[in-house]
């Protein structure tokens, strides 16, 4: 059973517009969530994270929103840039474990 | 910055061969992980280690073993490679105190 789901395998957005990537989870024990960005033939790089005690975390053009009641998080990128084109993975973890459960990824394409 | 180094970026092996994938991190992290990434399946955890000589199975440990003799080094072993182990293998590490994992650049393994 997939505990972390990214239901959109791909997303295309015009440069300068907002990109919204979504992630749903099923395990209510998850209390820490991360977003990673991955270019082809490279390892994932950490982008932004959020603890379950917050509902929003912002870092420059990137904002993550957490809706615990809906078990949903989203990553907003504003404004989107062509260099943002990559695969984005959400990941979840919970206190007491050091491992992460990853979603299947969403491929974002930002069109110039 | 944390550096996680994977010994081989690209490998081609034959069915039945023994394969070693090495990973070294330079930040004294307690926890190290091996994931594989396949299209449409995201990142799936093979094994992780929370201390020297300590290991735990992840979600897909079958066909793999690991070794952690030193804190900085975590090896993934395929005792007898099979074609269904063709994949991108990603090593990661994190400290116990900070819940962010850092990844290596990946090892693309092809088993013929």
Anisotropy-based shape of chain B: globular
Question: Approximately what portion of the residues of chain B adopt beta-strand conformation?
Answer: over 45%
Q: Biggest interface between protein chains, with counts per chain?
A: A-B, 23 and 30 residues
Taking pLDDT < 50 over at least 5 consecutive residues as the criterion, the unreliable ranges of chain B are none
Task: Specify the biggest β-sheet of chain B.
Answer: 7 strands, mixed
Radius of gyration of chain B: 13 Å
Description:
- The complex is a heterodimer of chains A (112) and B (112).
- In chain A, strands 2, 4, 5, 9, 10 and 11 form a 6-stranded mixed β-sheet that branches.
- Chain A has strands spanning 4-5, 10-14, 19-25, 32-38, 45-51, 56-59, 62-67, 72-77, 86-93, 101-102, 106-111.
- Chain A contains no helices and 11 strands.
- Chain A is globular.
- By secondary structure, chain B is an all-beta fold.
- Chain B is built from no helices and 11 strands.
- Chain B has strands at 4-6, 10-13, 19-25, 31-38, 42-51, 54-57, 65-70, 73-78, 87-94, 102-103, 107-111.
- In chain B, a hairpin with a 3-residue loop joins strand 4 (31-38) and strand 5.
- Chain B is globular and about 40 Å long.
- The chains are: A mainly beta (112), B mainly beta (112).
Summarize the structure.
The complex is a heterodimer of chains A (112) and B (112). Chain A has 112 residues and is mainly beta.
Q: How is this fold's topology laid out?
A:
The complex is a heterodimer of chains A (112) and B (112).
Chain A (H helix, E strand, L loop, with lengths): L3 E2 L4 E5 L4 E7 L6 E7 L6 E7 L4 E4 L2 E6 L4 E6 L8 E8 L7 E2 L3 E6 L1
Chain B lengths: L3 E3 L3 E4 L5 E7 L5 E8 L3 E10 L2 E4 L7 E6 L2 E6 L8 E8 L7 E2 L3 E5 L1
Parallel strand pairs in B: 2-11
Antiparallel strand pairs in B: 1-3, 3-8, 4-5, 4-9, 5-6, 7-8, 9-10, 9-11
């Amino acid at each position: 059973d997939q505990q972390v789901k990214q239901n959109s395998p791909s997303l295309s957005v015009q440069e300068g517009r907002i990109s919204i990537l979504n992630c749903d989870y099923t395990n209510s024990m998850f209390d820490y969530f991360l977003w990673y960005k991955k270019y082809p033939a490279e390892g994932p790089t950490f982008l932004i994270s959020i603890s379950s005690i917050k509902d929003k975390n912002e870092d420059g053009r990137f904002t993550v929103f957490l809706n615990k009641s809906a078990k949903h998080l989203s990553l907003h990128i504003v404004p989107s840039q062509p260099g943002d084109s990559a695969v984005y993975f959400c990941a979840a973890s919970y206190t007491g474990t050091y491992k992460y459960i990853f979603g299947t990824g969403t491929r974002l394409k930002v069109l110039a | 910055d944390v550096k996680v180094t994977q010994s081989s970026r690209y490998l081609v092996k034959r069915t039945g061969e023994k394969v070693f994938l090495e990973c070294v991190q330079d930040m004294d992290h307690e926890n190290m992980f091996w994931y594989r990434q396949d299209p449409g399946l995201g990142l799936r955890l093979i094994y992780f280690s929370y201390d020297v000589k300590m290991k735990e199975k992840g979600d897909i440990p079958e066909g793999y073993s690991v070794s952690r003799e030193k804190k900085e080094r975590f090896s993934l072993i395929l005792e007898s490679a099979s074609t269904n182990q063709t994949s991108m293998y990603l090593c990661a590490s994190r400290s116990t105190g900070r819940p962010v994992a850092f990844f290596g650049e990946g090892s693309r393994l092809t088993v013929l």
